[in-house]
Amino acid sequence: MTLPHGNGQPFQAPSPQPGYPMGAPAYGAPQTTVLPPELAALPRASFGEAVRRFFRHYAQFRGTASVSELLWPWLFHFLVISVLMTIAGISLSAGTTPAKTVHADPEVAGWATAVAALCWITTGIFNLALVVPAIAVQVRRLHDVGKSGGWWFIGLVPIVGPIWLLVLLLSSSKPELFRPEWA
User: Fold this and answer.
1) β strands within 7-79, DSSP E
2) Is 149 exposed, middle or buried (CB count within 10 Å of its CB: 0-12, 13-18, 19+)?
3) In angstroms, rounded to a whole number, what is the distance separating the alpha carbons of residues 109 and 92?
4) Scanning 26, 35, 55, 164, which has the fewest C-beta atoms within 10 Å of its C-beta?
5) Angle, nearest 10°, between helix axes 110-129 and 131-144?
6) pTM for this structure?
7) How does DSSP assign 92-150, residue by residue?
8) What are the backbone dihedrals phi and psi of residue 107, each rounded to the nearest 5 degrees, phi first?
9) What is the mean predicted confidence (pLDDT) over 3-15?
10) Contact 157, 164 (CB under 8 A)
11) How far is residue 115's CA from residue 94's CA, in Å, rounded to a whole number?
C-alpha cells in the first residue's frame, strides 16, 4: 500500500511563514497559551489572597498578575510603613521634654530615640525586603497587559517614565497578547 505523498507522513499544509515550525502560529497571531494556576493572574483577589501571593511568588518574574495582585500589596506596604513611622513619631513626641529657655533645644529621652531608631531600621529592612517582589509583580502585571517585562525600565526615565509605567500597570488585561516565552 502506498501513501499518496510517498514519504509515509500525512500531508501538512506549509507553514504560513518561512522559518516557523509546522503548525506554529505566525508572528502577531493571537496566542492560546493556557498558564498553570501558579503562573496565571488571580482576578479580583482579596487583600489577604493578594498579599499571600505577593510573598509566595517572591522572585517569580514568569506568568501574569491582575491589578488587585499589584495594588493590594502596595496598600499593605503603605499601611506597615505608616504604622512604623507613627510609632516613631509618637515615641519621639512622648519622650521630648520642653526646653527650659527659648534658645535651648528640647531634650529627648533615650528610650524615645531607641524606639524611633528601631522603627526606622525596621522600615529600611522592610523596604529592602520588598524591592524584588515589587519588581516581580510589576513585571508579571506587564505580561498580563501584553507587554514584555523589559517595559519595567521605562519607569527609570525621569518624570514621564513613572507615569507611563503606572498607566501600563493599570491598563486592562489582554490575555490574547501573552507570549509563551513569558511563562
Assistant:
1) none
2) middle
3) 8
4) 26
5) 40
6) 0.76
7) HHHTEEPPSSTTSPPEE-HHHHHHHHHHHHHHHHHHHHTHHHHHHHHHHHHHHTT--GG
8) -95, 140
9) 55
10) yes
11) 11
